[in-house]
Amino acid sequence: MNTPSTLTWTDALTLNQPQIDQTHHEFVALLNELAELLPTCTEPADALPAYQRLLTHTEQHFAMEEGYMAATGFAPDNCHSKQHAMVLDVMRQVLVHTHAEQDLEPMRNLLPELVNWFPAHAEMMDAALVYHMSQVGFDPATGTASTPALVGAEPISSCGSGSCG
């Protein structure tokens, strides 16, 4: 099976939340930048700057979303955050391996996995977060919610969707 290593932005990835949509656009662009670069790389030093940009962006991207979760009532151990932690853990392990072993293969293997993972994550978990943010009237620019009583309710330990356990 040939797995794609680039991701095309489609309307299905748009969540109509400007900060998250912008961050997702940037993530896709950085993912594609790495995908374009990797086939021509023979030395890890050629790919590491692009990979580091992707990793740094992903850390900031997930921290932003987790800040929104914390501000709107998600429990610290919710499944959305756990998925972020797993992805970052793998990305960091690939970075360590690439430096230590001077080996690009794990990076080449990870890229199509991220391409496959991201649309489902955005369409389910991030969409649920955006829906929840709209339900509590959360404004990311000010960090305030217009319905604070909903924010103080039982912390959400799932992904934020009613269909998530």
TrEMBL record:
CDD domains: Hemerythrin (cd12107). Keywords: Iron, Metal-binding, Oxygen transport, Transport. InterPro entries: Haemerythrin_Fe_BS (IPR016131), Hemerythrin (IPR050669), Hemerythrin-like (IPR012312), Hemerythrin-like_sf (IPR035938), Hemerythrin_metal-bd (IPR012827). Residues 20-128 form the Hemerythrin-like domain. The keyword Iron applies. The keyword Iron applies. Signal peptide: none annotated. Belongs to the hemerythrin family. This is Hemerythrin. It comes from Roseateles albus.
